[in-house]
Amino acid sequence: MKKIMINLDKCLGCKACEIACAKVHSSSDSFAEAMREDPKPQSRIKIQRGIRVRDEEERRAPFGESKKKLPRKAVYALRCRHCEYPRCVDACITGALSKTENGVVIHDTNKCVGCWMCIMACPYGAIKRDPAAKVIIKCDMCPGRDVPACVEACKTSAIIVVDVDAIPGSMGEEIAEESG
């Protein structure tokens, strides 16, 4: 089973992955044409910035009393983790979400009624509404491509594809658990 992993220490927050994802999921061949589409194509990955709390001492210190310097702004990637036991699939009332044999959680737009139950069930905030189509959008691991667009676009190699089954022992299980 293949999983996308993101090394947050390598991520610069440049959003090249977001742009590549939106372009791949557009109906245009070029980026310029994709940006002129109406409605605009949407990315299935979202890069956000926030404060990284590194340890228990910092988390519990009253405001302004931490002896340590505030940690740098951290980059967080919101994306579908293609969970082993996906809550979104269980929450979908129409069966529009399903898990394939190779572990990818896919979405059938023809079955989706826009009830947003999957959005509420996802613990990672990875499922978004498509306001134009009134259905959800989520990572589909770029079917038909050898490498997902976000992985290909990442110049710092912060986003990689890992074959969890090829990693021996408990490390493979840890990676599968960490990435969903």
Q: What is the topological layout?
A:
Elements: E1 2-6, H1 16-24, H2 31-35, E2 46-51, H3 56-60, E3 73-78, H4 87-91, E4 97-99, E5 105-107, H5 117-121, E6 128-130, E7 135-137, H6 149-153, E8 159-163, H7 169-178
Antiparallel strand pairs: 1-8, 2-3, 4-5, 6-7
Describe this structure in words.
This protein is of the alpha+beta class and 180 residues long. The chain has two domains: 1-45 and 140-180, Alpha-Beta Plaits (2-Layer Sandwich); 81-138, Alpha-Beta Plaits, CATH 3.30.70.20. The protein contains seven helices and eight strands. It has helices at residues 16-24, 31-35, 56-60, 87-91, 117-121, 149-153, 169-178; strands at 2-6, 46-51, 73-78, 97-99, 105-107, 128-130, 135-137, 159-163. It has a two-stranded antiparallel ribbon with strand order 1-8. Strands 2-3 form a two-stranded antiparallel ribbon. Strand 4 (97-99) and strand 5 form a beta hairpin. The longest helix has 10 residues, at 169-178. The protein is globular, with a radius of gyration of 18 Å. The mean pLDDT is 84.
**Largest sheet strand order:** 1-8
Helix count from the secondary structure assignment: 7
Text of the CATH class of the largest domain: Alpha Beta
What helical percentage do the residues reach? 10-25%
User: How large, in whole angstroms, is the Cα Rg?
Assistant: 18 Å
Give the overall shape.
globular
Number of domains: 2
Low-confidence stretches: none
Structural class: alpha+beta
From N to C, what is the helix and strand string?
A: EHHEHEHEEHEEHEH
Strand content: 15-25%
